[in-house]
Amino acid sequence: MNSFNPFLYISPELLSLLAIDLSIAIALLCALRFLTGLLIGVNTKDELAKRDNFAFGISMAGSIAAAGIVLTGAVTGEAATSYVVEAIGVFTYGAIGIIFIKLGRILHDKIALNEISKVKEIQQENIAVAIVDAAASIATAIIVRSVLIWAEGLDIYTGIAVLSGFFVAQVMLVLVTRLRESHYAKCNQGDSLQAALQGGQIAVALRHAGHLIGTAMAVTAASYFLSYEPTAIVANLVGWFAISVVMALLMWLLTKIAKKLILAGINVAEEIDQQDNIGLAAVEMALVIAIAFVLTALMA
To answer: Is residue 288 a contact partner of residue 256, using CB atoms and an 8 Å limit?
Structure first.
C-alpha cells in the first residue's frame, strides 16, 4: 500500500514564477503608499506617525486592500511561456488595476459624493468619510478583479474589457449612492446623506460602505453569465451593465427581507441615522455583505 506523502513536488520553474509574482505584487503595494500621499498632497509618514490621522490610515488601508484584491486577478499562479512574459503580465495588470482604483477614487469624490471633498475631509480627520472612501476603493477593486479574471490574454481588447468593467463599477457606485441618498432623505425629513457623512456620522458611513461593497460583489456575477468575446465590445459593456443592475436589485430585495426578519422590532433608520448606533450599523453592513456572498456563490 502506498504511504501518503504530505510533501508535494514543486518544480523550480514554478517557484521562480511565484517569486516573480510576489516580488512585483509587493513592489506595487509599496509604490501605492507614496502614490496615496501624492494624490492627497500629504506626507504619508507624517499623517500616519506624527499627526496620527486615523482617517488617512483608514483611507490608505482601503487602497491597500483594494490593490491586493486587484492583484489576485493578476497573479494567477499559472505558468507563463517565460519569466519575462509572466513579469510583464503581472506588472501590467497590477499597475492598470491600481491606476483604476485611484481614478475611481477621484471620480467617486467628484460625482458620487459631489457635495463634499473627500480629500479635504480626510485631511481634517473625518473618519466617516474615510470609511466610505475605503469602501469605494474596495468596491471598484472587486469589480476590476472579476473583469481581469473574466477577460483573457493581454492585448487591446483586454484593456477595453477592463475599462468597460471599470465604467460599470463607477456607474453602479453612483447609482447606489443616489438611491441611498433618496432613502436617507425619505427617512429623515429631507436631510442629506452627504451632510451626515461630512458631520462625521460613523454609523451612516458603515452602513453605506456595506451597500457599496455588497453591490460590487453582486455585480461580479456578470462574469458567470457572459462569455468573453474580445471583439464584442458593445455587447460586453451592455451585458455587464444589464446583469449588474438585475443583480443589484436582487441583492437589495433579499437584504430588505433579511433585515425585516433578523432586525425585527428595531427602528433601524432611527438607530443609525439619528442615534449614530455604530453596532447596529455594523450588523447591517455585515448582513448586506453576507447576502452578496451567498448570492454570488449561488450564481457561480
So the answer is: no
